[in-house]
Amino acid sequence: MLYRDVIHIAWPSLIELALTQAVSMADMMMVGGLGHWAISAVGLTTQPKFLLMTMFMALNVGATALVARYKGAGDPKKANIILRQAFMLTFIISLISSVLGYIFSRPMVNFMGAESELTLIEGTKYLKVQMIGLPILGLTSTITACLRGVGETRTAMIYNLTANIVNVFFNWLLIHGHWGFPALGVEGASIATVIGQTVAFI
User: Fold this and answer.
1) How many structural domains compose the chain?
2) Which of 4, 126, 127, 189 has the fewest beta carbons under 10 Å from its own?
3) Strand, helix or coil at 182?
């Protein structure tokens, strides 16, 4: 039945989307013990990061459509060409976005309405680390987008599940400092997120 095929493809995507949001939620929850300023510092970075991601997210929409078209036409060679081209374009775009985001981290956090100098400083630290990891996030999103084009949605779900588990573990290590690791606070939460994304990518 057609509806069963739709559900089979859709349910991993549903979980993936929930897990994508869970990363930021976990960071905000786990820095909450530092104070309200820490939650604000993490929250203020969400929109600037999303803005910098929109270019390669738009590219991925096109990549998914083209891969699906060539897969349906029985032309895997062209589908692979699309994957390689999208991969390269995403790397270039995400690298440029990463550099710009890193340079303008403080103005962006300030523009989002940081209420205190402490929130501004810590939010800037968080966003800078996120910008370092942006190319990895971009490349992963391109791979998973192309996989969706051939009906493979479980890989993205597994990636996000792995990233979340690793993120929570390193949050515990780095926010307050456990097992001899330094207590890095908000910056530690951001480092944990990037570590999680990198481990899942590998």
Assistant:
1) 1
2) 4
3) coil
